[in-house]
Amino acid sequence: MPGYDTRIHTLRLGDRDYRIRSLSDLQQYDDPDGHAERAGISSAQWSLFGQVWPAGQALARVMATHEVAGKRILELGCGLGLASLVLSHRGADVVASDVHPLAETFLAYNAGLNDLPAVTYRTLSWQAPGPGLDRFDMIIASDVLYERDQAGVIAGLVDALARPACEVVLVDPGRGHCGAFARHLKAQGFAVDERRLALRDDETPPYRGRLLLCRRAAHGTA
């Protein structure tokens, strides 16, 4: 038995219900071999990957209808992999990534819960992504701008991983760093469209959530 407790949620994402295994609460911690500690994940942060967060659900709902045909897609900080599972259901070419040592295990379990094929997974450090990286037509993420310097870190990762023509889709719960991230991407040649987004059914305008749709055409194209 693992040293943590889990639960199963049923979530409506797009046109179907998904069964998702998560950690039962934020009090979970289990790192007997020190893998998380070596990855820079503290005991206070350890359980964050395994929660069903509103921003992650919102990104998954966006991916349920977004144009993805023919695109190679990367999800940053996938956690439980909600958006990647929705994309897999739609037949998209998606790679889920995270640094948490259990993210791949939970992603594989959740794919099986929903009768989906295994989603390609990659351990990816935002600060040191390493050499020989793939390039992607679309990069997606939710709630990754949780500290001020993350705007520059994630923008740098986009610069390393984006193909010349690329789209970045990011959902933020209103932490206040979207403006800095948008400025970084504009400097890379992206056009940025920022929209307000409801993260809960009971929210009323003005919404705190933000949806950033960032697009860059290949040089010399419209």
TrEMBL record:
One of its GO terms (molecular function) is methyltransferase activity. It comes from the Bacteria. One of its GO terms (biological process) is methylation. Keywords: Methyltransferase, Transferase. PANTHER family: HEPATOCELLULAR CARCINOMA-ASSOCIATED ANTIGEN. This is SAM-dependent methyltransferase. The lineage of its organism: Bacteria, Pseudomonadati, Pseudomonadota, Gammaproteobacteria, Lysobacterales.
